[in-house]
Amino acid sequence: MTDKPVFLTPEGLKKLxxxxxxxxxxxxxxxxxRIQSAKDEGDISENAEYDDxxxxxxxxxxxxxxVRAMIGNAQVIEERGPSEEVHLGSRVTVQEDGVSxxxxxxxVGSAEADPTDGRISNESPIGRALIGQRVHSVISxxxxxxxxxxxxxxxx
Length: 156
Fold this sequence. Notes:
single chain; Helix Hairpins; Chitinase A, domain 3; 5-stranded mixed β-sheet
């Protein structure tokens, strides 16, 4: 893993810490029990349950390493309320040309991005286009459907 900063909201950091605790305590124990159970069945050379449990163990250990690195490189972003320009942690209300009704996006780091929940990454095309912009700015970005134009209505 690199030492690239991982931008997280306080809630996102808490979720990662909870996930790490779960993986290191409960999940490791569950996988170890599966491995032991498969070993108890006898010959492990052709034991599909044993092979599956070992693969799960490798996945869990890999995820633990990833989550530890993310927490170690975490830079917590706070919501700062109304602002003159868009930054990480901003909640931005925009109006897309030709679409009825505004959209609200919360600009977060890539680790927390969930477009279906309005949480967009600062590294996404729309996130990159919004960062540093001001209210009433008209921005554009390229999406799979073509060029999209947005007007920034509010920054919180």
